[in-house]
Amino acid sequence: MPTPTPTPTPTTASADSAEDGLRSRLPDPVKLFPEMVTVAQTMAKVLGNGVLPQSTVALVQLRAGQLVGSSYHVIGQARTLRKAGEPEERVTAVASWRDAPYFTDAERVALELVEAVLSPNPHGERVPDELFARAAEHYDEKALWTLVLAISQISFFIPVALIAKPVPGRSPGQNYTA
Known about the structure:
Layout: H1 17-20, H2 29-32, H3 35-47, H4 54-68, H5 71-83, H6 88-92, H7 105-118, H8 129-138, H9 141-164
């Protein structure tokens, strides 16, 4: 009886798409638009300005990936949090943050804010004044702008992940196969 070949996981997948069968729908956009590197580097610099904990940025972006159903973003942000030493309970509880005891009040309002931005609200504006006021209680203007830009950054890359389907778990530049 032949030995079964294990199905590769994103964390063990090789860069050779012929070996693992994982393929993106589109080629690496940087080959077509090299300016995207500058955009990505600039956003990374802004988000790394030191006024907002990087764990908050990653938690918010993980939640965004969960909300839109992007495996690429969920896997990437969970990996970022784990590499930064975040406890597994915090990483896995992001989807149920409202009931989980692992988050600060500031993190909770950040998670609520990303949910408000990415979830339709048929009964009014997505980010009501009350939610903004609660966010402003935890973050000064620069930190609040950093949080807004963290949500903006992930929102910019959501269509990329959902349409082009870069291979989850692979580094930028190695996540496109088409």
